[in-house]
Design a protein that fits this description.
With about 110 residues, the protein is an all-beta fold. It contains no helices and 10 strands.
């Protein structure tokens, strides 16, 4: 199983980033996919989740209306579109399929 996150970087407050997570080694279309984040000194927290095929999504209150999770089952990839970024969105972002481990994460830094 491999989960490879990409797309992080340094962005100013109010800016946007699109994260990608390329998955392999399991039946991607059968799994709910989730994005988590972990800020320095804080616990890892769930940011967003998307159902395997229905497209049903769930968001943490802190990102509702700003972030959008999506997936392409043909490409085994899950995305996180992040708009109106705030300082407090700074964290390492990870994608996850339940029970299948974690990728290396991608750093998102929101700074002026």
């Amino acid at each position: 199983v491999q989960l490879v996150e990409s797309g992080g970087g340094l962005v100013q407050p109010g800016g946007s980033l699109r994260l990608s997570c390329a998955a392999s080694g399991f039946t991607f279309s059968s799994y709910i996919m989730r994005w988590y984040r972990q800020a320095p000194g804080k616990e890892r927290e769930l940011v967003a989740a998307i159902a395997s095929t229905s497209g049903t999504t769930h968001y943490a209150d802190s990102v509702k209306g700003r972030f959008t999770i999506s997936r392409d089952n043909a490409k085994n990839t899950v995305y996180l579109q992040m708009n109106s970024l705030k300082f407090e969105d700074t964290a390492v972002y990870y994608c996850n399929a339940l029970g299948l481990g974690w990728g290396q994460g991608t750093q998102v830094t929101v700074s002026a």
